[in-house]
Specification:
The complex is a heterodimer.
Chain A: E1 4-13, E2 16-26, E3 31-35, H1 42-50, E4 57-62, E5 65-66, E6 77-80, H2 92-102, H3 107-121, H4 136-148, E7 154-158, H5 166-183, E8 187-191, H6 194-200, E9 203-208, E10 211-216, H7 218-223, H8 228-233, E11 240-247, E12 250-253, E13 258-261, H9 264-270, E14 279-283, E15 288-290, E16 299-310, E17 313-320, E18 323-328, E19 338-344, E20 350-353, E21 358-359
Parallel strand pairs in A: 3-8, 3-9, 6-7, 7-8
Antiparallel strand pairs in A: 1-2, 1-4, 4-5, 9-10, 11-12, 11-14, 12-13, 14-20, 15-19, 16-17, 16-19, 17-18, 20-21
Helix pairs in contact in A: 2-3, 2-4, 4-5
Chain B: E1 2-11, E2 14-24, E3 29-33, H1 40-48, E4 55-60, E5 63-64, E6 75-79, H2 90-95, H3 107-120, H4 136-148, E7 154-158, H5 166-183, E8 187-191, H6 194-200, E9 203-208, E10 211-216, H7 218-223, H8 228-233, E11 240-247, E12 250-253, H9 265-270, E13 275-280, E14 286-288, E15 296-305, E16 310-316, E17 319-325, E18 336-340, E19 347-350, E20 356-357
Parallel strand pairs in B: 3-8, 3-9, 6-7, 7-8
Antiparallel strand pairs in B: 1-2, 1-4, 4-5, 9-10, 11-12, 11-13, 13-19, 14-18, 15-16, 15-18, 16-17, 19-20
Classes of the chains: A alpha+beta, B alpha+beta.
């Protein structure tokens, strides 16, 4: 395994810039997930590391050594795709041994290596079976085992679970979570599924339009989003975004300018952003609760759309500025419509400028 | 509203539907939840008249429609993909179904209904735009408005296996829920995603291999699951399962020191030796980071940060199961923790076939 450095990595296809001068270091043994909507550049970046795509500009370094000119086969990277590619006529054991045999590795070393991956991937029950008879999850595990058995510099996984049925996918996610922590191989995992990214990554690299929006541990992206896009993309249910203007004692929310009083320190902290004509208050649904005393700081009157049950929890929908927002029902007051007070957890609200920039404020000491 | 009675359909030797009997009530949002191949899409296609059942009857609003053509059935299918006509404006896209030969309406009435549907979905200001100028979310609302405008007795939604954009799916849920609450529309929604179904459905119909496993509000199904297969299909994560054997003092789980007092003592005596599976919902399992009397030690196999909370997979011997904990409880992979299975939260299933055994302590689970 190796540490990987991307320096001003740029890929253009004609006029289209797929990857726009990104800089990123992947630590030795780190599990990094590239996350973003389709077209954000995550797969192109992965293909550059693999040597399947040639950068227009910038460098790729493995352990400090430039590998731009190295062919994919010379980089010693392992790639796992959506569709498992095992040899159907070979047993799982023979499939795993195949890349080692091809390189002339001795029998005793092959046996050692197979023991090692069998332990990690829990393959003992299926070692002597042929892939065709196995459920998709087991096949995917065998494919993973085959890709790590030859000590790759980097393990590259391109949406490996997206073609699997939801229930197998859930099982595989758990296996991957477990393996992630024991494997110790530098890994890059590409997905558009934020839940997958949050639960698998040591570090999430969120991309958009060829650029890195934010890179950090999952909880950091969740709690401290770099901008409105990060706040929107990470977390399910999605963060609520309430359009607002600053007023003397707080905010006016939505087209109807619903008053939301803020405590003096918070209002003072936002004063530095007075030049912003429109700001957005972001708050996750679990930090909005139904009920409260109208007029108090952090309490907003909103039109209630309805309540609903998700599993064992109760949630509600309300409307602000033409958008549906969500909150949690902690105690029920029985009202089914009309204007209701809701309480925002002001320690957990985030602010954004009209262009999506995060607006930070200093708590006065 | 919609009544399916013994619906069966085979494709060659594959039984896609194996006797589905199900009522969809007026004004409810019913989710058909099941894995790929469960028969969800075939059910919708039969209701729409796109597929002819081998046996069984379909009644829509009191009328037997089994032998009617798709055009004669008052239903509409919304696809999650947008299927908008790119050469037409938003207005003309929404108006499209009203201008079909079968439903031809006066242009004045068309205008009134298009504007109403557009206003309901907050796209009234976009009517003159071209479809290609819209964002993904706006396109989605246009697609829903187009389905709404005809006001059929029943809407059906079929979700493809792999949703390309999870964020769009999430907002579709909110739109659907609002439309349902505002208009009292009757909606049949086919999905393989438990969380999606949980977020919108009044009732859930669980399908597996062409059979209906259980129907009801999720809270009721969770309080009283009919079979082990039900436990595996719902919950986030799904039910925690412990294979064991009935002994006089309780259910003995292999590798565990203490038997589970998971059943009524009289029943235990009568069923000694029977193979069973003990099932619990993950959030009913008590967990502690420190040793406690009556708790069993486990190792954290893997963790899943979910934003709101954390799910953990625990391992005891070769047995693994999942629980849900608050973010405040720090239990990294490899750490030890202690858990307890509250007897009155345990469900018992027959190890052979997964049938529910109604012999639990405290008479069937949760209060």
């Amino acid at each position: 395994m190796a540490a990987v450095d991307l320096r001003d990595l740029t890929v253009r296809f004609g006029d289209f810039t797929a990857v726009d001068a990104i800089n990123l270091g992947l630590g030795d043994g780190e599990f990094v997930v590239f996350l973003g909507p389709s077209g954000c550049g995550k797969t192109t970046t992965l293909r550059c590391i693999a040597g399947l795509e040639t950068p227009t500009a910038g460098d790729i370094l493995f352990d400090g050594r430039r590998v731009n000119e190295l062919h994919a086969t010379e980089r010693n990277v392992a790639m796992v795709f959506q569709f498992v590619s095992l040899y159907p006529h070979l047993s799982v054991r023979e499939n795993i041994a195949f890349p080692l045999r091809a390189r002339g590795v001795s029998r005793s070393v092959i046996r050692e290596k197979i023991d090692w991956v069998t332990g990690i991937f829990d393959l003992a029950p299926i070692l002597d079976q042929r892939p065709g008879r196995l459920p998709p999850g087991a096949r995917q595990k065998a494919a993973l085992a085959r890709s790590v058995v030859r000590d790759p510099n980097v393990l590259l996984l391109d949406e490996p679970l997206s073609a699997i049925d939801e229930q197998f996918r859930e099982e595989m996610r758990w296996e991957l979570r477990h393996l992630q922590q024991r494997l110790g191989v530098t890994s890059v995992y590409v997905t558009h599924d934020q839940r997958e990214a949050m639960s698998l990554a040591d570090r999430v690299v969120l991309m958009r339009d060829g650029r890195i929006v934010q890179a950090g541990p999952p909880a950091e992206l969740y709690e401290d989003p770099a901008d409105r896009f990060a706040a929107f993309f990470i977390g399910s249910p999605s963060m609520n975004f309430l359009p607002a203007r600053l007023t003397d004692d707080g905010l006016a929310i939505g087209r109807e300018a619903r008053p939301l009083k803020l405590p003096a320190p918070l209002r003072a902290g936002l004063a530095g952003h007075a030049s912003e004509d429109a700001i957005t208050l972001g708050v996750r649904p679990q930090h909005v609760s139904l009920g409260g005393r109208s007029g108090e700081a952090g309490v907003l009157d909103v039109p209630l759309i309805g309540r609903y049950q998700v599993g064992r929890e109760r949630w509600f929908d309300f409307e602000i500025g033409g958008e549906i927002c969500k909150g949690r029902v902690l105690s029920d007051d029985g009202r089914d419509g009309g204007e209701v007070p809701v309480t925002l957890d002001l320690d957990r609200v985030r602010f954004f400028a009209a262009d999506g920039r995060r607006l930070r404020w200093e708590r006065p000491s | 509203m919609l009544a399916l009675d013994g619906l069966a359909k085979a494709f060659g030797r594959h039984r896609a539907l194996d006797g589905i009997t199900l009522d969809v009530r007026q004004g409810e949002l019913l989710a058909l939840l099941g894995p790929t191949g469960a028969g969800k899409t075939t059910t919708l296609r039969c209701v729409a008249g796109l597929e002819r059942p081998d046996a069984g009857r379909i009644r829509l609003a009191g009328v037997d429609v089994t032998d009617l053509s798709p055009m004669e059935r008052d239903v509409s299918i919304v696809f999650e993909g947008f299927n908008l006509l790119p050469v037409l404006s938003v207005y003309d896209n929404i108006a499209f179904p009203l201008r079909s030969p079968l439903y031809r309406e006066a242009e004045e009435e068309v205008g009134r209904r298009v504007r109403k549907a557009a206003t309901d979905l907050r796209i009234g200001h976009l009517l003159d735009r071209g479809v290609d100028q819209l964002s993904g979310g706006e396109k989605q609302r246009v697609a829903i408005a187009r389905a709404l405008v005809r006001r059929p007795s029943l809407y059906m939604l079929d979700e493809p296996l792999s949703a390309l954009d999870l964020k769009l799916r999430e907002s579709l849920m909110a739109e659907l829920r609002e439309m349902h609450q505002r208009d009292g529309a009757t909606i049949l929604y086919a999905t393989h995603d438990y969380n999606g179904a949980a977020a919108v459905a009044d009732r859930v119909a669980l399908l597996d291999r062409g059979r209906l496993l259980q129907v009801g509000p999720l809270t009721e199904i969770m309080a009283d699951p009919a079979s082990l297969a039900v436990g595996r299909l719902i919950g986030s994560p799904a039910m925690a399962c412990f294979p064991g054997r009935v002994a006089a003092e309780g259910v003995v789980v292999e590798g565990w020191a203490e038997p589970l007092p998971a059943a009524d003592p009289a029943w235990l005596r009568g069923h000694a030796g029977q193979g069973v599976v003990v099932g619990l919902w993950p959030d009913d399992i008590a967990v502690s980071a420190v040793e406690q009397p009556g708790f069993t030690r486990a190792e954290v196999y893997a963790t899943d940060f979910r934003g709101l909370d954390r799910a953990l997979e625990l391992q005891v011997g070769r047995q693994r199961f999942r629980i849900v904990v608050d973010l405040g409880l720090s239990l990294p992979p490899g750490a030890s923790c202690w858990f307890r299975l509250p007897a009155q939260r345990c469900f018992l299933f027959d190890a052979d076939g997964g049938r529910r055994l109604r012999a639990e302590a405290g008479k069937g689970g949760r209060p």
